[in-house]
Amino acid sequence: MCCALQPSSIASKKPIGCGWHQSMRPLVKGDFIKRRALMLPEAARYDTLLNLPSGASLGGALVAAVHAIVADLACVSGCMFVQSSHFI
User: Fold this and answer.
1) Is the same domain home to 29 and 4?
2) Of the candidates 61, 58, 79, which has an alpha carbon nearest to the alpha carbon of residue 70?
3) Among 36, 25, 32, which residue's Cα sits nearest to residue 6?
4) Residues 32, 46: one domain?
5) Are residues 19 and 49 in the same domain?
6) 85 and 45 share a domain?
């Protein structure tokens, strides 16, 4: 489990080196690309959505999450249909 990518709530750092010489560095987008995975923007992460204040609009937060993902990924910018009125 040394190099496995984990959700941000569990580990936001990646081990470098081995044994007791091992240090930690923050995960970067390249770590996820090497594993053919997506590094979600902060607004789209499960922990962020789960910890919304009680009066916050979940629909609005989901729409913001989708827009953040689309803005971060150039390959899906023209492909995804995003209509905010479905959630709000």
Assistant:
1) yes
2) 79
3) 32
4) no
5) no
6) yes
Same domain, 24 and 44: no
What 42-47 contacts at long range (C-beta under 8 Å, 24+ apart), as own/partner pairs, is 42/68, 43/68, 44/68, 44/69, 45/7, 45/8, 46/7, 46/9, 47/7, 47/8, 47/9
**pLDDT per position as a tens digit, 40-76:** 999 999 999 999 999 999 989 998 898 888 888 877 7
Judge if pTM exceeds 0.70: no
Handedness of CA 81, 85, 86, 88 (dihedral sign): positive
* Helical ranges in 13-57 per DSSP H: 29-34, 46-50
